[in-house]
Amino acid sequence: MIDRPEAIARLETALTENPVGALLGPRQSGKSTLARAYAETRSARWFDLEEAEDRAALRHPELVLKSLTGLVVIDEVQRMPDLFTALRPLADRRGAPARFLLLGSASPAIVRGVSESLAGRVGFVDLAGFQLGEVGVRACDKLWLRGGFPRSFLAASDAASARWRSDFIRTFLEQDLPQLGVRTGAETLRRFWTMLAHHHAQVWNAAELARALGAAEPTARSYLDLLCGTYMARRLQPWHSNLGKRELKAPKVYLRDSGLLHRLLGLGNRDELLSHPKLGASWEGFALEQVLATCGQHDAYFWGTHNGAELDLLLFRRGKAWGVEFKVGDGPQMTKSLHIALADLKLERAWIIHPGSKHYPVHEQVEALPLAKLDALVEAIMG
Fold first, then answer.
1. pLDDT above 90 (res 42)
2. Distance CA 32, CA 298 (A)
């Protein structure tokens, strides 16, 4: 088992400051394991809504939950969205005799229910798979290849990891999505997901993917909404400044887990990854997720113009703008795009994140920084 102290600390804060905590993330990302680690030293009652017995027990939630004290954990809560309404009066009780921890893997169902029923009463904690700070920098290449899902990362071999990811994709499409009410066929969604893998780290083009899929643009957008809402994909929104330039206005799209990206691309080992045309895009998405996991996902954008200038990641922290580029080569140098971004976006500083080992300046405001030394970026940005 890999310890996740930072995630435990965020969970502790959420439940200390609010009567309800929501631990959100993809299936099989370790939410239940983390919640059990948090609950093991506390008096806790656990309901797993994948179990028929627990679903039956909560058919009348007011009767069951109002007598409980201490920590109450409800896993896969999106399966019974009516619980949100029942939790509201319980969360408002004087003295908060119980704290409720909700675990879920489908953000649209959960966030909508929480925002409508539990506004001002809930603290959110996002949990992806393992991050570099949790597994250690020596495991960087393994994490990049296999992704962060615990069972994929901890598998006995690359082949076993690839088999687990193949099974995960099949189960997700054939079982998990139908449980959320998704009626689109599994093969259709697999085709779209695979197409998205080949467009990973590119600007979203609904028309292009819709044509390839033989569907309408709204259908392609709805499929993307579905993958983003279940934490499989990410939209990185564009930043629009008033520069009088023709700026890109569509988001960039990524698959959030590099291991699933590689499985959908048919890559099974490091040699296959290093020789694949999507190597640079894969590194960009992997390193992007590491930066957002440590610096937070709020106020994060990309920036680009139709003339070709682009910045992979633009972060606003402490009233300042910070830039990040991702390059897969070991010795990245200053680029024309970074010169333009420094001037047009008035960046405080910028970094080029690479997989090598050397940390060196490439400009008076720009440094080449190994991903293994990401703490230097975090310290500068977060203060």
1. no
2. 25
Nearest to 202 by CA among 351, 347, 304: 304
Tell me 198's DSSP state.
Answer: H
Contacts of 354 (CB under 8 A, 6+ apart): 326, 327, 328, 329, 330, 331, 332, 368, 369, 370, 371
**Structural domain span for residue 27:** 5-126
Q: Which residues contact 321 (CB under 8 A, 6 or more apart)?
A: 314, 315, 345, 346, 347, 348
Q: Which residues pair with 244 in a beta bridge?
A: none
- Of 126, 159, 184, which one is at a domain's C-terminal end? 126
Residue 280 pLDDT = 97
d(CA 177, CA 93): 35
CA distance 248 to 314: 14
Helix ranges, the chain (H): 5-17, 31-39, 52-57, 61-65, 83-91, 107-117, 132-135, 140-146, 150-153, 158-171, 177-179, 186-198, 206-213, 217-229, 258-264, 270-274, 279-295, 336-345, 374-382
Q: Quick: pLDDT tens for 154-168.
A: 999 999 999 999 999
How many domains are there within the chain?
Answer: 2
The Cα 381–Cα 321 span in angstroms is: 9
Tokens of 371: 């991903």
3-state secondary structure of 70: strand
CATH number at residue 29: 3.40.50.300
What pLDDT does 111 receive? Answer: 61
CA distance 200 to 234: 10
CA distances from 85 to 34, 54, 59, 82, 191 (A): 26, 18, 13, 6, 37
Residues 252/288, Cβ–Cβ less than 8 Å: no
Q: Are the beta carbons of 6 and 34 closer than 8 angstroms?
A: no
Residues 350 and 254 in one domain: yes
Domain boundary among 78, 107, 126: 126
- pTM tops 0.90, yes or no: yes
